[in-house]
Design goal:
Order of helices and strands of chain A: EEEHEEHEHHHEHEHEEHEEEHEHE
Mean pLDDT of chain B: 86
Helix content of chain B: over 70%
Shape of chain A: elongated
Structural class of chain A: alpha/beta
Helix content of chain A: 25-40%
Radius of gyration of chain A: 22 Å
CATH architecture of the largest domain in chain A: 3-Layer(aba) Sandwich
Oligomer: heterodimer
Largest interface: A-B, 25 and 23 residues
Distance between the termini of chain A: 24 Å
Chain lengths: 306, 230
């Protein structure tokens, strides 16, 4: 059995002349909680649909649970839970009818106890119609119907999109509880960094369809950093330190955002340009993400952690 | 079990349209048939006075169900368009395709459930109502010449024409091309088949047109749906 739950190799999708996903190569180990990050329109949904075989790749390939995405068998699909973007469910169904419908596809795997537990946790009554549910409640129902068949791999496309802070927290905590209890593989996309920070072991950052980073969350946190250099004797003509994302020049200060650069390298470069002082600037994950994904000097970095 | 779940979902989603078509057909068809029966009651003493003669065909043609058959044709075609719209266009607008298709069944089953629901809809709404109206016209004592069984069969051909409209619309929705470009080709083809079947005389020609329509549209729909991107 493959150790990877998800593997994509050079996955590419063009819509007309535009690349929505561009040579995406990533691996999601089993048992991992993997956050797929990217700004709106970065290609996260397209990448997920390609993985699930709902779209056909222009080039490259992907595998879910060792099975080619273009030929996912009913048996493999039965082991993959999918929470769609926007939690689109048949509006005419009640929650109970939705559960009956889902259960028919998983006669052996459906966990009625878990489903009931999740409804209780989210304080939802089974008799309510989907059309009467708020966005947040639909998200909760989506999670419950995706989790109740006990999937080996759960794929969620921006599951917390449009939810308020309280519901988002409740949704994530529900998810965390399940993950801890069952040790399943979860791949979820998001552009809400706080959510990712709370649950993900590993992240991939997609920008304009291309993979920019694939590493553990901790590696990313320590790799992307900002330093402020005091340069009293005049600015250097060119900032040529490797791993540079952005540089901002003040009157006598130079602010550098760097990726994958050691302290020693920064200090050596600071000495070289005659910087008097080198001070690290604290960054939140959101700051790091913004700096990492903002276009800098026309360059597009690709960085992979250890 | 899995197919049944899919079929029930499709039937439930199509039910309002099928029920609406049935009610409409009962009302409009019933009124037209009643009106024709009243007409024919007057016609009998007028046409068969002693010493007068009428051509033999005028005793049989027109059938009391002619007007109803026109309604049947329009209703079948409309139901075909509406059902295919509900089953193949609406999930695109509501973005529920992914939920519908990511299932532990072959994708073909999802299509078969839709086709089966549509077939049941056609049998129930225009088909069964047509048959009931025919039986009523045949049994009622007030008609001097009951409609011939051939009229019943012709009505069912009209119902099948609705299925052609359904398949053309469904195939249009499944094509990757934009609906207003080559995406309209299946619809245009279905319209051609329907026009041919109506315009050319003879039941054999109608049957042949229907067979060609089904033979072209159905396999293409199966292939297109299997390869469709959602």
């Amino acid at each position: 059995m493959s150790e990877l739950a998800v593997r994509t190799t050079g996955l590419t999708k063009y819509f007309g002349g535009a690349a929505a996903v561009d040579h995406l190569t990533l691996s999601v180990p089993r048992g991992c909680i993997y956050g797929l990050l990217g700004r709106n329109g970065a290609g996260k949904t397209t990448a997920i649909k390609l993985m699930l075989g709902l779209l056909h790749p222009t080039a490259g390939s992907s595998e879910l649970l060792g099975c080619d995405s273009r030929r996912l068998t009913p048996e493999v699909r039965g082991r993959i839970g999918y929470v769609t973007e926007g939690h689109r469910l048949p509006r005419w169904m009640t929650i109970a009818a939705l559960a009956r419908f889902q259960r028919a596809f998983f006669p052996a795997r459906w966990d009625e106890g878990l489903f009931g537990e999740m409804l209780d946790y989210f304080r939802l009554s089974a008799g309510r119609k989907v059309r009467r549910l708020s966005n947040g409640q639909r998200a909760q129902v989506s999670l419950a119907v995706a989790m109740a068949p006990d999937p080996d791999l759960l794929i969620m496309d921006d599951p917390t999109l449009g939810l308020d802070v309280v519901i988002r927290r409740q949704f994530l905590e529900g998810m965390i509880q399940l993950i801890q209890r069952r040790g399943k593989t979860i791949l979820f996309s998001s552009h809400i960094l706080g959510d990712v920070e709370r649950v993900a072991d590993r992240i991939a950052i997609i920008e304009r369809g291309a993979l920019r980073a694939d590493c553990s969350l901790n590696e990313f946190r320590s790799a992307v950093r900002k330093v402020r250099l005091a340069v009293p004797d005049g600015m250097p003509d060119e900032v040529d330190i490797p791993g540079l994302l952005h540089s901002r020049r003040g009157e006598s200060e130079l602010e550098l955002t760097l990726v994958g650069v050691s302290d020693g390298q920064v200090e050596a470069w600071a000495d070289q340009v005659g910087a008097a002082r080198c001070k690290p600037v604290s960054m939140t994950l959101e700051d790091q993400f913004i700096e990492f994904t903002s276009p800098g000097d026309g360059r597009l970095f690709e960085w992979e952690g250890e | 079990m899995k197919f049944l779940a899919l079929l029930k979902k499709e039937l439930r989603e199509s039910a309002p349209w099928i029920a609406g078509a049935a009610v409409l057909f009962v009302l409009v068809g019933g009124v037209l048939l009643y009106d024709r029966i009243i007409d024919m009651r007057h016609y009998r003493p007028w046409g068969l006075d002693p010493g007068s003669s009428v051509p033999a065909y005028s005793l049989i043609e027109p059938s009391p169900l002619d007007d109803v058959a026109s309604v049947l044709l329009v209703l079948s075609l409309a139901l075909g368009l509406v059902l295919a719209g509900r089953q193949f266009w609406m999930p695109t607008f509501l973005r529920t395709w992914a939920f519908a298709v990511h299932r532990s069944v072959p994708r073909l089953w999802v299509l078969l459930a839709k086709l089966a629901a549509a077939a049941i809809g056609f049998v129930l709404a225009p088909g069964a109502v047509w048959t009931l109206l025919f039986l009523f016209a045949s049994k009622t004592a007030s008609l001097p010449y009951p409609p011939r069984p051939r009229v019943l069969a012709e009505g069912w051909l009209f119902v099948t024409l609705g299925l052609i409209a359904y398949l053309g619309t469904a195939l249009s929705a499944c094509r990757a091309a934009r609906w207003y470009t080559t995406g309209t080709f299946p619809l245009a083809f279905a319209a051609g088949v329907v026009l041919l079947a109506i315009a050319l005389p003879g039941t054999a020609v109608t049957c042949a047109s229907l067979a060609v329509g089904l033979a072209v549209l159905l396999p293409q729909l199966v292939v297109r749906f299997g390869a469709k991107e959602f």
